[in-house]
Amino acid sequence: MNEDADSIAERKMQFLYALRSKGVTDARVLGAMEAVDRGPFIKGLFSERAYEDMPLPIACGQTISQPSVVGMMTQALEVSPRDKVLEIGTGSGYQAAILSKLARRVYTIDRHRRLVHEARAIFADMDLVNITAITADGSFGLAEQAPFDRIIVTAAAEDPPGPLLAQLKEGGIMVLPVGQSDAVQHLIRVRKTADGLEYDEMRSVRFVPLLEGLGKDG
Ligand code: SAH
Predict the structure, then answer these.
(1) CA nearest 95: which of 111, 105, 106?
(2) How do residues 185-210 score in pLDDT, each as one tens digit?
(3) Which among 11, 44, 99, 208 is most buried, taking Cβ atoms within 10 Å?
(4) Is the CB of 64 under 6 A from ligand 1?
């Protein structure tokens, strides 16, 4: 399908408008979301809906988050260009690609090898050379690269995993959904200060659960 330049520009404007109207107002975040095309992260039947503000199914029974949720989480993470960021839950790779525009280095982990491979191919196509994608159980973080300035978890746990809190730098921020997988979950932001951890609760959300071990495909 060949689209003309006008309809692409129009679609982009609508995409950014939807983000702004849902509270994504940070200029750097909007710039990153403008720069990264969501289309390539969605394959098959649903690819036509890539520019709608909707979560969509991806391989391995997982979902790519809704763009406005990606925007809110990224905004809450307050990423700066010097930051080393850890993401748990690569999924399609879309969130990691956004982060790669804002941070110095991004490590992203998924328990499904297939998702990691597919995401790596897209990162290479898009020349996003500051992302390292790893197949592992992300609940344990990535000790060899710790500590991290920022950590984002895009699957819901009942509580923030201890190893991730431990791998967050002092002054660092972690954003994650907490709650049971089939109940209401809340996005929370954790700041690590010299005096301990400060929590604040953001909006309610719905994410797939953070599961133990590797996915069936490896
Ligand atoms: N951030 C993704 C969406 C993630 S969906 C995007 O932008 O598309 C949640 C992902 O978390 C799924 O791909 C799932 O496989 C992964 N996941 C769940 N539990 C995990 C764990 N313990 N370690 C690593 N990844 C996990």
Answers:
(1) 106
(2) 999 999 999 999 999 999 999 899 99
(3) 99
(4) yes
pTM: 0.96
Active site residue 65: yes
Report the 3 state secondary structure along 78-108.
CCCCCCEEEEECCCCCHHHHHHHHHCCEEEE
Report whether residue 208 contacts ligand 1, using a CB cutoff of 6 Å. Answer: yes
Compute the distance from residue 154 Cα to the ligand 1 centre, in Å. Answer: 6
CB 134 within 8 A of CB 145: no
pLDDT of residue 198: 97
The CATH code of domain 3-205 reads: 3.40.50.150
Please choose, from the candidates 42, 46, 78, 77, the residue with its C-alpha nearest in 3D space to the C-alpha of residue 154.
Answer: 77
Provide the residue ranges of all domains of the chain, joining segments of one domain with +.
3-205
| 216 pLDDT more than 90 | no
Spacing, Cα 87 to ligand 1 middle (Å) = 9
Give CA separation, 200 vs 75, 101, 105, 115, 188, in Å.
14, 26, 26, 31, 6
In this predicted structure, what is the pLDDT of residue 104? 98
pLDDT at 218 over 60: no
Q: Is 80 exceeded by the pLDDT of residue 182?
A: no
Residue of 7, 21, 65, 204 marked catalytic: 65
> 147: cis peptide before it, omega within 30°?
yes
